[in-house]
Write a structure and sequence with these properties.
Blueprint: E1 7-8, E2 19-25, E3 28-33, E4 41-44, H1 46-56
Antiparallel strand pairs: 1-2, 2-3, 3-4
């Protein structure tokens, strides 16, 4: 996925257990495991990503 610009959260503690998110995709958000950058990528609709993020603080 070379055209995806993945970034780690500013909340990442550096322990290697993070996800990376790419939001530069028209109509989608991509998520991957930072330990496996060449591994699988989840591609979500922005509304699904927003619902996921909304549920994290509960």
């Amino acid at each position: 996925m070379p055209s995806f610009e993945f970034v780690k959260s500013s909340y990442s503690s550096g322990n290697g257990e993070c996800v990376e998110v790419a939001r530069n995709i028209p109509g989608a958000v991509a998520v991957r495991d930072s330990k496996r950058p060449g591994g699988p990528v989840l591609v979500l609709a922005p509304t699904a990503w927003d619902a996921f993020r909304g549920g994290l603080g509960r």
